[in-house]
Design brief:
The protein has 488 residues and is of the alpha/beta class. 36% of the residues lie in helices and 19% in strands. The chain folds into three domains: 3-37 and 220-298 and 440-487, FAD/NAD(P)-binding domain (3-Layer(bba) Sandwich), CATH 3.50.50.60; 119-214, Guanine Nucleotide Dissociation Inhibitor, domain 1 (Orthogonal Bundle), CATH 1.10.405; 302-425, no CATH class. Bound molecules: flavin-adenine dinucleotide.
Length: 488
């Protein structure tokens, strides 16, 4: 049996490990932390449960496909709950808008806040669907290592059709008269940690994922997902070693032949799959001759500033997912990506799983996961100094939005900064989605799933193709498995 070492038990690593084990490989996962799941993590304290990373499940079929690959059914492992509304949006002028994958409901909401845009929404969604369907059979189905295949006439026409020299913001402005709707659809750039003012209109495919395919929660919390994958991995014969950081990838004659662990142990293998952040893997786990300037130039995705708030009060105005928009979206992204500074008037996201799931907080209380986009780490922000003031600013802003007495009601609290994301998961500058998609050709700038300069080394996870977000990193695992299977 050929041996594979997977570095990291994030979702990309677990996906690759499961598929490889089911394909007949002897797979060991070596994870630095004490738990599986990487950035999909959780905290439990004082009767409150919080997911500390991903909160929204989309592209459910990608998860089903992984379980089906193992001859299992997703629903036997996870209780998946459809959300309606998917998200509640709040603006400072007190406008509230519920987005639903029931299109008629959403159209009624648009009719209420921006009547001339009802027809524009239908046209927008049709374009989004067309873009998604093209991406699904090209970009999301093939590794970048198969670029020559993608450039065949059969796919090329399609790829050109979804490529765009326009930014997402310009694209959205072309559809919607309402500034509010333009802002709402601009927000989808943040699903891969990018700016709508720089990311190409190709990413206008994301709204179809949510409005067209649906959005879900997992009862018990999103952390149930990595736990289910760990179970599936175990049943598939994968060995997972926790608290087991890799110090170096051993390369002999330009070929990966195993890893050296930080505890001094050596694990030899035929293939190495790095789920550790791809840029960090090149920077720290390989000899510096393999690290290029091109890699250094890849812009990390944004990071996140998170507050976990256990509050002894109900906020009935909240849905499961909520967005409190700032008045100047452009200024926010300029702060994040140009100045590398936290925005002083940020858009705030709150996930309150307690609205859907009584297991998440004590009676009469809410578990608020508060997330604000934050710049990737740099010398421009010292979070040790700034975290407390930024936290105060966010709480005040939420109180102004009508979350009365929020400060007074907090009985459990934890802050997670970009510096924490960087340290805990060894991500490139605390990025939470790998590399950004800011730039017209950014999609083709991700690290390919098969290393170009080290044989038998493969990459999965957010910094690799096809990108960040739970379903996409699962797809990266599928692509790596397909590439490795072709080698034997
Ligand atoms: C706050 C936040 C909100 C998000 N919201 C959503 C959302 O709503 N929906 C969605 O789909 N996605 C969301 N995401 C993104 C999603 O969580 C990630 O894209 C995805 O989980 C990343 O998976 P990955 O495979 O890249 O691995 P990671 O999660 O990055 O895991 C990599 C693993 O490798 C380990 N590792 C690193 N170096 C080493 C080493 N040297 N040795 C051993 N182990 C090592 C790390 O400890 C880690 O466990 C969010 C992320 C965050 C942080």
């Amino acid at each position: 049996m050929k041996k594979v070492i997977v570095i990291g038990a994030g979702l990309g690593g677990l996906s690759a490990a499961i598929r490889l084990a089911k394909s007949g490989f002897d797979v060991t996962v070596s994870e630095k932390n004490e738990t599986v799941g990487g950035k999909v993590n959780s905290v439990e304290a004082d009767g409150y449960k919080f997911d500390t990373g991903a909160s929204l499940l989309t592209m459910r079929h990608v998860f089903e496909d992984l379980f089906n690959f193992c001859g299992k059914r997703l629903e036997d492992y996870l209780e998946i709950v459809a959300l309606d509304p998917i998200c509640r949006y709040f603006w400072t002028d007190r406008t509230v808008f519920d987005a639903s994958s029931n299109i008629e409901k959403t159209e009624r909401e648009i009719e209420r806040i921006a009547p001339p845009d009802v027809g524009n929404f239908a046209r927008y969604l049709a374009d989004s669907q067309r873009k998604y369907e093209i991406a699904e059979k090209t970009f999301l189905a093939h590794s970048l290592n198969d670029l020559p295949k993608l450039l065949r006439p059969k796919y090329l026409k399609d790829l050109l059709a979804i490529s765009s020299l326009k930014t997402l913001d310009k694209h959205n402005a072309g559809y919607f008269q309402s500034e509010k709707l333009r802002q709402l659809f601009n927000r989808f750039a943040t699903y891969n940690g990018s700016s709508p003012y720089e990311t190409p209109a190709t990413f206008a495919l994301v709204p179809f994922v949510e409005f067209g395919l649906g959005a879900w929660y997992v009862r018990g919390g999103i952390y149930e997902i990595p736990q289910a994958l760990a179970k599936l991995a175990d049943e598939s014969g994968v060995k997972i070693r926790l608290n087991c950081a890799v110090e170096k990838i051993i390369v002999e004659n330009e070929k990966a032949v195993g890893v050296l662990l930080e505890n001094g142990e050596t694990l030899r293998s035929d293939f190495v799959v790095a789920n550790s952040d791809a840029i960090e893997t090149y920077r720290n786990l390989l000899d510096e001759k393999f690290f290029s300037k091109k890699l250094e130039r890849r812009e990390p995705s944004c990071s996140g500033f998170v507050l976990l708030l256990g509050v002894k009060k109900k906020f009935p105005q909240l849905a499961h997912h909520n967005i409190f928009f700032s008045d100047d979206y452009k200024a926010e992204f300029d702060a994040l990506f140009k100045d590398l500074r936290p925005a002083m008037n940020p858009t705030i996201y709150i996930c309150a799983t307690s609205r859907t799931d009584e297991t998440q907080s004590p009676d009469g209380c809410e578990n608020l996961f508060v997330l604000v986009n934050a710049p990737y780490t740099s010398e421009k922000t010292d979070w040790q100094i700034e975290a407390k003031n930024y936290r105060d600013l966010i709480i005040k802003k939420l109180e102004n939005f009508g979350l009365e007495d929020l400060e007074k009601s907090i009985e459990f609290e934890r802050i997670i900064t970009p510096a924490d994301f960087e340290k805990k998961y060894r991500t490139n500058r605390g990025s939470i989605y790998g590399v950004s998609s800011n730039g017209i050709f950014s999609a083709f700038w991700r690290v390919p799933n098969r290393a170009k300069n080290v044989k038998n080394l493969y990459f999965v996870g957010g910094a690799t193709h096809p990108g960040g977000g739970m379903p996409l990193v699962l797809l990266s695992g599928k692509m790596a498995c397909e590439l490795i299977s072709r080698e034997v």
